[in-house]
Amino acid sequence: MPARFQVDRRTLMLGAAAAIAAPVAGLRAGDSSAIPIGDMHAHLFFSISRQPASVRPLGKLMGEGNASLVSWSIVGDQPWIRPTAQGLRQHGAPKSGAATKWFTDELARARKHAEQQKIKIARTPADLDLALKGEPHVVLSIEGASFLDDGIDGLKAAYDAGVRHIQLVHFVRNSIGDFQTEAPKHGGLTDFGRKVVEECNRLGILVDLAHCTRAAVDHALAVAKVPLVWSHSSVARGASAGKARSMWQMRQLDMDQAKQIAAKGGVVGLWALRSDVGATVESYGDRIIEMAGWLGDDHVAFGTDMNSLGNAPVSSYGDLRRVVRHLERKLSAERVRKIAIGNYARVLRQAMEAAKA
């Protein structure tokens, strides 16, 4: 979640807004041949967005473009970050139990909203099969696992509640590892952070490295037994990522590490940040084709960061459907399907099935 995300101090403390029930089915009539859409990283807030869940409910959001596998990312450190001139920065630190309470409460709101929208939560490979056929599913995920500072047992509780995708770090320091936009403190992943990766593999939770430092990425790749993802940002074309002055360039992934993630079977998601991907759906599509050229068609996906970017060229799944149509004019249907949904579904499946091994 980059620097343009706007956090309001007062609304951070508000309760959930009333949800609007707007159930959706699979692909719309007359659109049965359309490739379903997946998104490795999106947001739907209850109180801090111009278009919160009460105004733009999940069913409407996904139905705008027939999205069927969307990662709804709960911001695990949301109460402890604030916008500054330099981008989002940590503001205070959670007291014992506070991050777990925040995450648990927000997760309960998300689950209730999905239920009201009659959209299933993806928990099993069978659910992924349905999503690939166009039946809407949401993947419950967490951006910044600060709640694990309260103990590793929280991971099993999150799994039992339906979480299948966890991003290790975000904008608040935690006991797992270092993140890109602050000076390193741990030298990568901590011993505890390595244990978190191992436990995610054991339970069947997809590990997300977005926001991690180079050292933390290296450590996670060394420990993980199944593919990992970098859910959102982009791959730096030239100079090493993290050394540029702007916040969004600090958030990019180095080419060599992107290729290492791909070599282990993982996937890198492209966000819709205007200053990075351009101002149109076509420029976004061309950027992801470029990334596929670098990493291979099996290793890129959409990771829009929807609802946390200002003036983004892809701000709805209707926009993302236009991206898919743009890709269809340039690539084979097989290649488009991998990028649009297949790659995310594959790594989710590999993470889920690892729990059986």
Write the layout of secondary structure elements.
Elements (H helix, E strand, L loop, with lengths): L36 E6 L15 H6 L3 E9 L5 E4 L2 E4 L7 H19 L3 E2 L3 H8 L4 E7 L9 H8 L2 E5 L23 H13 L2 E3 L5 H10 L5 E2 L16 H4 L4 H9 L3 E4 L3 H4 L3 H15 L4 E3 L14 H12 L4 H22 L3
Parallel strand pairs: 1-2, 2-6, 5-6, 6-7, 7-8, 9-10, 10-11
Antiparallel strand pairs: 3-4
Helix pairs in contact: 3-12, 10-11
Summarize the structure.
With 357 residues, the chain is an alpha/beta fold. It has helices spanning 58-63, 98-116, 125-132, 153-160, 191-203, 214-223, 247-250, 255-263, 274-277, 281-295, 317-328, 333-354; strands at 37-42, 67-75, 81-84, 87-90, 120-121, 137-143, 163-167, 206-208, 229-230, 267-270, 300-302.
Give the overall silhouette.
globular
Computed CA radius of gyration, to the nearest angstrom:
18 Å
- The low-confidence parts are 2-32
How many H/I helical runs? 12
| CATH architectural name | Alpha-Beta Barrel
For the record, what CATH class applies?
Alpha Beta
Q: Please name the CATH topology.
A: TIM Barrel
Beta fraction of the residues? 5-15%
* Share of residues in helices: 25-40%
Total number of β-strand segments?
11
Mean pLDDT: 90
Q: Can you write the helix and strand succession as a string?
A: EHEEEHEHEHEHEHEHHEHHEHH
Please identify the structural class as seen in this structure: alpha/beta
Could you state the CATH homologous superfamily? Metal-dependent hydrolases
Query: Into how many domains do the coordinates divide?
Result: 1
